[in-house]
Design goal:
Elements lengths: L1 H8 L2 H23 L3 H8 L2 H45 L1 E2 L11 E2 H4 L4 E3 L5 H9 L3 H13 L2 E2 L18 E5 L6 H13 L10 E6 L7 E2 L1 H8 L7 H10 L4 E6 L22 E2 H9 L7 E6 L4 H7 L4 E8 L2 H13 L14 H11 L1 H6 L3 H16 L11 H15 L8 H20 L5 E2 H5 L4 H4 L3 E5 L7 E5 L2 H12 L5 H16 L12 H10 L17 H14 L7 H14 L2 H10 L2 E5 L5 H12 L6 E5 L5 H11 L4 E7 L6 H7 L9 E8 L10 H12 L3 E2 L2 E3 L7 H4 L1
Parallel strand pairs: 5-10, 5-11, 6-8, 8-10, 15-16, 16-17, 17-18, 18-19, 18-20
Antiparallel strand pairs: 1-2, 3-4, 3-11, 7-9, 12-14, 13-14
Helix pairs in contact: 1-2, 2-4, 4-8, 4-10, 6-7, 9-10, 13-14, 13-16, 16-17, 18-21, 21-23, 22-24, 23-25, 25-27, 27-28, 28-29, 29-30
Length: 742
């Protein structure tokens, strides 16, 4: 009879439970047959062994009952479960972007989600400082080291026992990270993957996602809350109630944005609370986290500022997981996914096939951009900036917004999309930026990147500090709370915002520039004020009219005179030539960040000679050099010798080098297809000869690079047009044998 019933249900879980039930019944019958005399049975029950045997039987029966009840429930609600899965894929399959014009517009979660670096153990102070100070490839190494040393994890492992761990399988996972680091996107990815059968299929029969910022001061029961959030899926209220009562262990509740709730107090938890009792959202959440309302699993997302409160509330076995951001490989994958996906935007041309690869290359070549892109929201901003440039017909392989403009865009986006639910006016935002800037400037002056809680509390409102600051409890000193900016580069940007403030600009900027100038003239050439250089570079960037204006930020004209005078005095004191090559590159970067043509033209009019020798340059350096030469009225001399200048980098510089009256170049790994750029740099199209002080082409034998005879002859013809060639060393392999030519 049982077998027939099990077959009829055609459900593996039910069949397994019924088979186990049969085993238990057989064992019970065997015991009863063995002791038919009830009086003797009662006497025997006093014996230890028999009592133990019946106790084990009772445990088995209870276990089978629970399994059978859950299995039968799955069968009964299977139709509604399938409907909920379909609804979830429709509801959470797309994620609305910051610039979406309507609720229908958005990005497919399955297409855009990129794995993040996550760790489950708190890092010590030294490791955190290493991450905050590292840039580019160094940051990637720091993240890889943290992933290994502090137990890296992924969403697939959230509700599993960690390897080499004696801890219980967590009933609650806290996914924390700084603002804009992908917590909500990850929550959407989890519920969407569950609905499509890719994740937690054997763990949970129902998954519910609650976006807490939308559930403020309402009073309801847990049953009504979950049902109201899924009413469009067709799920019955009675089904929600039955699932929560009968199989709570097969339910996952995702609570997104714990930090966005108003203050939650421990005393709000009521012992009489049930899943049908009406209560405030705060009361329900406290009961859930204490395990008093429901024996379900929880996934809670929150900024790091709320981790202390969560730690006090959670009484069930739990695990804290922190998002550290994208690795460099993650940045590449995100960019590729961004430009590969189909966006239905009327009136915009389709993207070129190689756009993603081009943008990848640009970001990977720029240390500042690559470092900033470890934050998913900044990576998204940069992708959109490049996309806009593409739509405007600009060449994204060479053009670039200044780094200052990218950081300003990020701050603006954070205020618009990640601020508190209650309205904040411009004066309050202005006060926040000033307070954060004052904190950042104090840190820069003292070369400090981690701040005491008291330093933050007296300056920054608690409800706003999580927008730009992370909060941590240091290992081995649980009572010590520390704050830091997302990265040292963000601290430097806020310090520049503070220095540019109308009330302190003259004093702060003048003092900073004076200290750095004195440092430049240090006879030992030891830059003791190097920690101020990034702040000064951002100040030049803030003088650019094209940078997004933030609340309370003065017009660029207010700070430009100080910067122009400083640059002019440097040139004047050095006779038009900064004394060290590193200082030369720094000043060129400052001019690039300023990006004002008249400003750059005036500065480069005094400084008309660039000499870089044995200073390895990057593609980013070459773009800065090209921009500054372009706006120089008359470049007298340009030398780039033994600086790892490749043929690819030469492509960026070639057009501007044609303007130089004296030219010295050492080019490495020049390909046949890039010879045209060498010819252009030598000025063939300008019909005006110049003095070539040095020209060397060095191709390593391992590259097996060769040139067509035609290209070699063109190089020689172009050299013949020059006024003077002082030093020439061309190591060229001709691809076509001479006998075939004649």
């Amino acid at each position: 009879m049982d077998d027939v019933f099990a077959e009829k249900l055609d459900n593996e879980q039910v069949r397994c439970a019924l088979n186990k039930f049969q085993e238990v019944l057989s064992k019970a019958i065997e015991l009863m047959e063995k002791h038919k005399d009830m009086n003797k049975l009662k006497e025997f029950m006093k014996a230890t062994e028999l009592k133990k045997e019946f106790a084990e039987l009772n445990q088995d029966l209870t276990y089978v009952y629970e399994q059978l009840r859950g299995s039968l429930l799955v069968v009964l609600v299977k139709g509604q479960k399938d409907e909920q899965r379909a609804y979830i894929q429709e509801q959470f399959g797309k994620m609305k972007e910051y610039n979406s014009q309507s609720s229908c517009d958005g990005v497919m979660v399955s297409e855009q989600y990129t794995d993040l670096v996550m760790v489950t153990k708190p890092r010590d102070k030294e490791m955190r400082e290493k991450e905050l100070r590292s840039r580019g490839a160094e940051l990637d190494c720091a993240l890889a080291r943290a992933n290994k040393q502090y137990v890296g994890t992924s969403v697939e492992k959230f509700f599993c026992q960690q390897p080499n761990s004696k801890a219980h399988v967590p009933k609650a996972v806290i996914l924390q990270g700084q603002s804009g680091y992908g917590k909500t996107f990850t929550a959407h990815r989890i519920i969407n993957d569950w609905a499509s059968g890719k994740l937690y299929n054997n763990l949970f029969d129902f998954v519910f996602l609650l976006e807490l910022k939308e559930l403020s001061n309402i009073k309801t029961s847990l049953v009504d809350l979950l049902w109201s959030q899924n009413v469009q899926s067709g799920i019955d209220k009675s089904t929600v109630k039955r699932v929560l009562k009968d199989t709570p262990d097969r339910v996952l509740l995702i609570l997104d944005g714990f930090d966005e709730l108003s203050k939650i107090e421990d005393k709000e938890c009521s012992h009489d609370l049930t899943i049908e009792s009406a209560a405030s959202i705060s009361t329900i959440l406290v009961a859930l986290m204490k395990g008093k309302l429901l024996n379900s699993s929880l996934l809670i997302t929150s900024r790091t500022t709320a981790s202390k409160a969560l730690g006090k509330l959670l009484k069930v076995p739990h695990c804290f997981t922190e998002i550290l951001g994208f690795s460099s490989d993650g940045v590449k994958k995100y960019i590729q996914a961004f430009f590969e996906r189909e966006k239905v935007r009327p009136g915009l041309p389709r993207k070129k096939e190689n756009t993603g690869s081009t943008v990848q290359k640009r970001v990977m070549e720029d240390v500042t951009l690559l470092t900033a892109c470890s934050s998913p929201v900044i990576c998204w901003i940069i992708c959109n900036v490049f996309e806009d440039m593409l739509q405007d017909g600009k060449d994204i392989s060479s053009a670039l917004y200044t780094n200052t403009s990218i950081f300003a865009l990020f701050v603006s986006m954070q205020m618009e999309h990640h601020g508190p639910t209650q309205a904040i006016d411009d004066d309050q935002w202005s006060g926040l930026i000033r307070s954060l800037g004052e904190l950042a400037m104090e840190g820069v002056d003292n070369q400090k990147i981690m701040f005491d809680e008291s330093d933050v509390d007296k300056r920054v409102p608690k409800q706003l500090c999580s927008l730009f600051l992370g909060k941590y409890f240091l290992k081995r000193t649980k009572s010590e709370t520390k704050y830091n900016f997302m990265h040292l580069s963000f601290q430097e940007f806020f310090a520049a915002l503070f220095a540019a403030n109308l009330e302190v600009a003259e004093e702060k900027i003048t003092s900073m520039l004076k200290r750095v100038k004195s440092d430049f003239y240090n006879p030992k050439q030891e830059l003791k004020m190097s920690h101020l250089l990034p702040v000064i570079k951002f100040l030049f960037g803030l003088s650019y009219q094209g940078v997004t204006r933030l609340p309370g930020q003065p017009e660029p004209d207010h700070i430009s005179p100080f910067l122009e005078k400083w640059i002019h005095d440097l040139y004047k004191d050095d006779g038009g030539q900064p004394r060290t090559q590193n200082i030369q590159l720094f000043i060129l970067y400052c001019l690039y960040e300023a990006h004002e043509k008249d400003f750059v033209k005036k500065a480069m009019g005094v400084w008309n000679s660039i000499n870089l020798v044995r200073i390895p340059v990057t593609m980013s350096d070459c773009r800065v050099l090209a921009f500054c030469i372009q706006h120089c009225p008359a470049m007298e001399q340009f030398k780039l010798l033994n600086c790892n200048l490749t043929g690819e980098m030469l492509c960026v510089l070639a057009e501007q080098l044609a303007k130089c009256k004296k030219l010295g170049l050492v080019v490495e790994e020049l390909r046949d297809s890039q010879v045209d750029h060498l010819i252009k740099a030598l000025g063939k199209d300008t019909c005006t000869g110049r003095i070539v002080t040095d020209l060397q082409v060095k191709n390593s034998k391992s590259q097996h690079l060769s040139f067509s005879l035609e290209n070699v002859l063109q190089v020689l013809d172009t050299l013949a047009m020059q006024k003077q060639v002082e030093k020439l060393d061309l190591k060229l392999t001709i691809a076509t044998p001479m006998k075939d030519v004649w």
